[in-house]
Design brief:
Layout lengths: L5 E3 L5 E3 L2 E2 H8 L3 E5 H19 L4 E5 L6 H9 L3 E4 L2 H9 L7 E3 L6 H9 L4 E4 L2 H13 L4 E8 L21 E2 L4 H11 L3 E7 L10 H21 L5 E3 L17 H18 L6 E4 L3 H4 L3 E12 L5 E5 L8 H5 L5 E3 L9 E6 L8 E8 L8 E5 L19 E6 L2 E6 L4 H5 L4
The structure holds pyridoxal-5'-phosphate.
The site of pyridoxal-5'-phosphate has 16 residues, from helix 10.
Length: 432
Amino acid sequence: MICDNLSVNALGHLCMAGQDVTNLAKQYQTPLYVMDADRIRDNCRRYRQAMQRHFGDSARVLYAGKAAAFKQMYRIMAQENMWIDAVSSGELYTAQQAGFDLQNAVFHGNNKTDSEIAFAIEHGVGLFAADNTEELLAIDRIAGEHNVRQHILIRLTPGIDTHTYEAVNTGKVDSKFGFAIETGQGEEAFCLAASLPNVVIDGFHCHVGSQVFDSDSFLKSARIMLAFMAHIRDAYGYTANILDLGGGYGARYTEQDPRLNLDANIGAVAQCIRQACKASNLPVPAVFLEPGRSIVADAGLTLYSVGTVKTIPGFKSYVAIDGGMNDNPRYALYGAEYTVVAAAKMNEPCGFACSLVGRCCESGDVIQPDVKLPADLKRGDLIAVLTTGAYNFSMASAYNRFTRPAVVMLEQGKHFVAVQRETVDDLIRLDL
Ligand SMILES: Cc1ncc(COP(=O)(O)O)c(C=O)c1O
């Protein structure tokens, strides 16, 4: 199977973390997000161990909460000694309410509002990743009003093209995020930040993209960032303490996706950074990484029930499930690939070619086109879409006023609700 926390039991049922998902569907209903907490913890530990081994104690692994943010997730992150990357006061608030110490948070985003900046400063957020000139000025002003000197990283775009989906390719010069090094705006941002009385520059940040499996783009961006850091040291006498290389390592959505060797990849990045630092006589900075997808994607799957099976003679077949782009918009957004299985018929041959579609009132509401499922698929059968732990729950909407699924977590052979299923009363709660 695409991830080693998945298996098939003697009944031919799909299991995650050894638990039969058909029982979970019976108990909690569908659609249902299922998340394997043990896998999340393993992924955190793999990162922390690799970072510690290759960069030492100053390294930090920040979970990018945009991948999946809810209280239980932040409790896990606190227990696993992770830091977090947050992109809104909503994510910061969720983490704080879960007892996460916001001193260990980096606040991201390309358009933080004044009230979000104030919220973050009032709640002691450790670092801001300052994204643009207006924001630098606002952080300085609001920090001054609070008698705080706010520590920041300056977000730079190193001009790397990772050739993944355009929508998740964020390190290019032409990007809504950060200051471009190539245009001189990165240096201008440094000069501005250095002149601000209520801002302390701790280092620099970049994020080159997502769903990358080799370290090539990390190596390129690290070299560009370190050359920039050496230039800033030579020109202004400032030596950065932190180099944050963002997130981006990939997850296996299909059998075609490679298996990521995290330790080897991080080792290669460490070697490259050490060489570049030595060449320009820079001290090796504390290195931060911000993985989201590679922490939670393969810890999740989504369970659905089949509603209709429709074949149009001479054209194709559609299988419609009781969820859709409202709980998983990723195919509609950027053509994301998934592995789809009939969770109670895992040993049956899959000869029925169809498109798996949702029930939203949009022709584009497709979870995955061209999938192969058992020929006798019928109403009530259970479908599992694999590797949905990242950017599914967090991107869910109430489009068409469909209620959002519950999140059930699996841990140490047990299961429990981490996020309740939304109800129709939740939907009208704010309506006047
Ligand atoms: C600044 C930043 N850090 C981290 C991430 C997490 O990326 P991934 O989930 O691909 O690891 C993102 C994703 O968009 C990001 O923009």
